[in-house]
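input
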Amino acid sequence: MIPDFTPEDRALAEAVRKFAEARLAPRAAALDEGGSVVEHLPALAAQGILGMNLPESWGGAGASALAMVLAVEEIATACAATASTVTAHFLASDAILLAGDDELKRRYLPGVAAGERVGAFALTEPVGGSDPAEMRCRLAPDAGALRLTGTKHFISNAGFADFLVVFAQGDPSAGARGIEAVVVDRTSPGVAVSSPEPTMGLKASHIYEVSFDCKVVESQRLGPARSGFKTALRTLDRGRIEVAAEALGIARAAFQAARDWSKQRKVRGGSLAELQGIQWMLAEMATSLEAARLLTYRAASLRQAGLPFTREAAMAKLQATEAASTIADMALQIHGGYGYSRRLPLERYLRDVRALRIYEGASEIQRNIIARLVLQ
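output
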């Protein structure tokens, strides 16, 4: 079912499209060569994009879940690295929105909505990504407060974020049920951030290692004690729809490039598009893209309606990221040697899309989630 987008949804998407085409797309290749999407943050803030996921009651745009999908796809079509930074920021503010008390929300969300505060979501660790039982970061009582110790790894935005939502083990004997969540200001004493990690793709959206040995006051706890794992899962359900939208954007850019190239490229007196083999490749790409888009819309529609959407979010992320990887590879193949050249964006699309099958739950984790839920 194709959802019924409201005029407001379409207007937001159109505004983001115009902004992305004018400001983000022209800089995407240069930033990939050596730069940071930090340069876009003031413009993203001015457009209200950094607070797009927040309700109007906290100063945000109050965008619907469907409008968010449309907007993220437009950003990713223009610059996947910017989309990655923006959606990582959404994870942090979503966690506070979902689990924070009013005091914590007042402390952070109006600044986020105004584009004055950027967030990071610190879950992954050097020895534990998908398995919470491996979490080594600790949160323990310390002289009337809490002490956070340990290291997080591959954390988007951490080098320039104003705050981090950090997950740590409060009771190792309880496994996932012992996990806590706290909000930590990046400039707090005892927080150390590494240099950016060298990565294959999304090069302008930097990821970092962060070490903690810092004091955290009780009011910075996110949600009730031992509720961190639940907060992480609820937040990641939302984030997986946005990762699916990122994948749609990259896939759309790759497909459009391949379609246009096939019409323009001449071989043996005709265009590539006249060859049945190329036509079949384009047909397969278009079908995979549309299937991924509809699954993503389905997940967003359920979220918007306030219905359970864990399974559908996992399906959307799995289908969209896997399909986008195939589409980007096929688009490069259609371009031949030109696709392999860095003078065209095809190789960047292929490098950028690869991370989407790993972060916010690898494809294997999505399959586990889907299987568990269909077997219930």
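quick obs: The longest helix spans residues 228-264.
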